[in-house]
## 1
Amino acid sequence: MDGKQGTYEIPPEMRDFAEKSVDQARKAIDGFLGAAKKTADTLESSATTVQANAKDVSRKTFSYAEQNIAAAFDLAQRLVRAKNPQEAMQIQAEYVRTQFAAMQAQMKEFGSAAQSAMSQATGATGSKK
């Protein structure tokens, strides 16, 4: 026994193969973690966008409700002060016209907000690819 009998040499080809396998596995895991992080960032960004848009819509909804309630009380007050049925009918007709215009403007604004929210949500998911 010359002392070399107990040592085991790994062939260089096998060592190279093992190193390449470890390197490829590390790159695959890094790629997977990077993709997972991008997905998490996208979901977080989308959730933040949706939450911000929901708050904005909620604020607008309350604002419009306040405006519409104030207009209804104004109508009631004006009707009580009307001098005759003809004046009351004119006040009512004017109220219907102005409220119809206000409702159209409000719905248009809600439509724009919804479109903007969809664009931002798709932009948030599309920009992180």
Note: The chain is about 90% helix and 0% strand.
## 2
Amino acid sequence: MQLLKARFENGLEVTFDVNEAARQKAIVPVTLQVLIENAIKHNITQKSHPLHIRIFNSGDYLEVENTMQKKKVIEASNGQGLENLKNLYTYLSVKNVWYSTMRNYLP
């Protein structure tokens, strides 16, 4: 997160709101990195319109949400990032993986 904040400065705001019980649980390595990088890849990150990413727990789930500020042109992408992550979790958990975009999120 420090490297991303150094790169995007005020164009990126990440909020962690995960309680202590949820912090004791495990997730697949680099899951958060993939989700955060995916949000950055597909959305505008500008000081005038910062990308907001919120990471929080809700029941047994860890949720990662971001504002939608779609880029007009996206760097090389095969469009499989989230789908690959979802498929990986089907082998490791009986719980469904889902993702959403916050449209009116304000920190």
Note: Helices lie at 2-8, 20-23, 31-42, 81-92.
## 3
Amino acid sequence: MTLGRFGVWLGSIGLLSAAEERSAVSELEAAGYGTIWFGESPFNKEAFAHAALLLEATKRVTVATGIANIWLHSPESAANGGAMLAEAFPGRFVLGLGVSHAPIVTSMGQDYSKPLTRMREYLDTMDASRYVAAPPAEPAPRVLGALAPKMLELARDRAQGAHPYLVTPEHTQRARAILGVGPVLAPEQAFVLESDPARARAAARDHLKTYLTLPNYSANWLRSGFDESDLGDGGSDRLVDALVAWGDEQAVRARVEEHFDAGADHVALQALGDDPVAQLTRLAPELR
């Protein structure tokens, strides 16, 4: 798959109107980013329609679901949607799949007791599905949203790589050790171009407040050497600073380089706070 060295994780940009989002991603493509990533939940844009919108609005950039929620799509519909986009936009679509989070999935009336088994069975059904429309020249590559060791192993064995979200460079190093040589490792990295510690951490805590309630993330941070005291009161400074890069462009670039030094192939950057498109555009020359 062609991701480029640096990508954008849309975050709040992906919640804009279609017209505003088209303009934003066109500007980000012009800034030189190689891949546009976006998330999916039961409360925002459906993943395959969203990907089509972004692909139509751009000319060369890769578009990747980061992730498409497997509880919102049958395996057959995910396979068919990926095949259609890969045929329509050769080499420009990557299908990222993930198991979401227990509070979200149980609120939908689904059983979240065995998410790893669910993902394995989902991939089995995808691989066995039949697609009779015009086939793509090459199938859409797939990556898994993987944090824990067993999901990373599944990404190694049944996908072309992993897309970990809200992780540190230390996690990137552990993920690379599990993936080995070959599979793509494309972590997300949040940042805010703000050198005042209080303002930067306020933006970071606003971003983290929902994620601090989700067990998949808290369990991963505990595996990464943080403790329960780091997870309370909006997150300790230690946790906040580890998860969200802040400062000037050079400081953010330094954090990105830590991921590359740890084994990442690509880093997806998510701008927090005011005017994320302007922040990403401002950061782009430093990345180049």
Note: The CA atoms of residues 115 and 271 lie 29 Å apart.
## 4
Amino acid sequence: MKEPVYEVFARKAREEPLRHIGYVNAMNGDLARVCAWKMYDEQNWFEMCVVPRSAILPVNLTGGPFAGEAYAALGDLIRAPGVGSYGGAEIAGKEGGQ
């Protein structure tokens, strides 16, 4: 059985944003926390978090580890012209005679 993947995020100080520092494979969240702490303990982290990869919702569906067949139809819908509050024309600079 393949172990789930957990993405690891950390920051060195309270005022810093969390940043992605790697990933671990673990059977559950408790093991993922221990594995992440042991694997990435080279820094004096203020905070470290693990997130199951399966809980991450992809925004850019054209590539990467989260762009699978399950998201293909959703990606086509998102990229369709006139969909959403902007429809894409505003972002591309095609509105208002531009």
Note: The two ends are 55 Å apart (CA to CA).
